[in-house]
Amino acid sequence: MKKLVLLLPTATVILAMAPLLSAAGYQAGVATIVITPKEPIYLAGYGSRNHPSEGVTLDLRAKALVIQEQSGQRTVIVTTDLIGLPRAIADPVAARIEKSYGVERAHILLNSSHTHTGPLLANNLTLMFDLDAHDREVVERYSARLADDLVTLVGTAVGNLAPANLWFGNGQAHFAINRREPTPAGIKIGVNPEGPTDPDVPVLKVTGPDGSLRAVVFGYACHNTTLTGEFYKIAGDYAGFAQRDIEKARPSATAMFLMLCGGDQNPNPRSTLELAQQHGATLAAEVLGVLAGKMPPVRGPVRAAFQLVDLDFAPHTRQTFESRLQDSEPVRVRHAKAMLRTYDEGQPIRHYPYPVQAISFGKDLTVLALGGEVVVDYALRVKKEYGPKGIIVAAYSNDVMSYIPTRRVLKEGGYEADQSMLYYGQPGPYAEDVEDRIFDTIRKVMASVNRKPAS
Predict the structure, then answer these.
(1) What is the value of pTM for the model shown?
(2) Domain ranges, ordered by start, for the chain
(3) Where in 208-301 does DSSP place strands (E)?
């Protein structure tokens, strides 16, 4: 009997340690901060707006997940309820995170939800409005504070590191619709039920050793634009409501939204607050359903790769922009003047350094993060080449400099191919090899993290 008494406590200790031993060597830390502007500010996304914000419907937040391996190597995912972080903000923030917390640049992913009821940021969509000195100062002040807040946020998440397990699964949502509507006059922003979409809702679950839910990272490929240009109150749109609903249902968890390749996708229907809440509830319910089901574990070493590739613009000359100085559309005149200044300075814009990033967790999960407003064709092609299992194809990551069309979209024309470049301050459409250059780089970073093409 004495021997049995001695064995029982030992067995109990082993059983108690089992969840901890299954943590695959990971630690995870999570943090959240409110980033709602403290004063009226111009809202980004719709050029029709003509005055600053008028109150708050739903607070904006930035959230950080830090994952640390046994080796001490850290990976950081930051999500923001913002239109998109330009490299003028993202690059310095990443450099400060690297210096302060020892995280290599390739292991830092900065993503934005692309809400159009969030603040205008410095160096992003700056030609959309003709701001006076006061409104420009408000935007600059907010952007500087935001950068500081994001660095502090990551530090808080590092301070919260604790043993963790990772799990991955997928659901589907169907309120996104392709918005590139063919008409006799060309492609317009409308509704195209025949156009490509991606219903995938990837879900990464982070739990403690005891199984308690600590964080949920989920995504969807759809413009965060249920709330249209007549809305002047700050909100995170459907993505903000989805995060709120998940956290209400699972109070121990921090819900983090990744915007995927939704550059040419719109919520359908749209244009009311009730619809934004409805789409958010639909997405939240799908995520909660995935969490309630069986999710395979994510294990193995974390590898990351980050590479810039120059994307060329279609040829242009000084005369290209001089001919627009008398245009009846103010934005085209502002754009022409901005482009002529680059010629005056001897630095006309001929190409743009485009970021491509991949982060893999063993063989179980790969996150491919692309900059800009990427159209859905990219995600569909990536999943065809690499298989749809264990992959997240995010856009709006590390820099949002323009729409990113495929060769098909570029050839068809329309807003995503050309017209939107006016607001982003780019000289015009990309060259025809834009898709080829990006996919060449995708293959390089995917090879670097040992993600092989599907057989």
Answers:
(1) 0.94
(2) 25-302+357-401, 314-344
(3) 213-220, 254-259, 265-267, 297-298
